[in-house]
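User: quick one, fold this
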Amino acid sequence: MQRIVVTGLGAITPIGNDVQTYWNNLLKGVSGVGTIEAFDPQALDVRISAAVKDFDPKQHMDAKKARRMDRFSQFAVAATGEALKDAGLEIDPEDSDRVAVMMNTGGGGIPTLTREVINYYSKGPDRVSPFFIPLFAPNMAAAQVSLSYGIHGPTMAAVAACAAGAQAFLDSMHLLHRGEADVVIAGGTEAAIDQVAISAFANMHALSKRNDDPEKASRPFDAGRDGFVLGEGCGVMILETEERALERGARIYAEVAGGAMTADAFHITAPDPNGRGATMAMKLALERSRMNPEEIDAICAHATSTPLGDIAETKAVKQTLGDHARNIVMSSPKSMIGHLVGASGAVNGVTAVMAIQHNVMPPTINLDNQDPECDLDYVANEARKMEINAVLSNSFGFGGQNVVNIFRRYE
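Assistant:
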């Protein structure tokens, strides 16, 4: 079976609009959380988010195209451009049917949906934009990437809540193994910082209400955590068969060793408190990667900063790795960038690959008073230099969807 390798990376995040800026700020422990500026949040119980800053879509596309894309699609096109350039990959029209796009999301164009519903009820049906559907539809980020870069191969989007970005890598591996493509632009994108989305998450008691101290609001594994911070962004990888990458002399960041997907079948929003589905996904990912638990050096945790979720993930890691769980480190980028929903697993994957490249694990910030039930090593507050050859990346979504990917050093 062909090995699958990573040859390019792209990212748009609350702490940097390219991979290197994101990575530098991640290692420094910079928080991207602040008071909401996209709209007046004063009527809301939750008035904080982790927004992407200083993003100008016209730096990545012409103004007309930008107007016809929701923000989640703009992020995908921009991050894909960075990833393609990083991979040194130009799409050859004669070969474009061998390139695929798998760009997932949790919700698609939610702010567009909100805006057009308001237009309908306040101004009438004639004022609903004719571009509403191609702006909002969850598949449009993938479609816009295909249109922007002339890609004629399989172009797909899967909606899998908070596991969507990670599922993109898993499904891309399957495409490549089946020989349906030689290259896949894979990732997740989300831009759902919106009055209705914030209100819905807040009303289900999922969000932190630390409005007066935003940078301290996202605190995975800390005893004082009170929910996640909604973020936005995009993560993209160029995945290729080893044969194709070597043939064109590409720089290889890492290998995607394997992965797995399971379901909790427990609750529509809460995780299985015993971590059964997550444990199964991690064990299957190891099995399919033909790796032993002792070969894992670090985990990019899902770790959203919710009271139940962080404990369930900790239990699952211990059930999966056994005694070796005490030897590995875990880190949660969400402590700095918030919860990017459908993009979170994709950005986690980018983080895992960069950790392998640089032999350093980013910190989990705001971990000042560790929850006794979260009793592993979470790289509290300061990045840690260490040898990293394999990173397991966790993503767990509403509805009980679990996706685990394993990235390892390419040799």
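User: anything notable?
Assistant: The mean pLDDT is 97.
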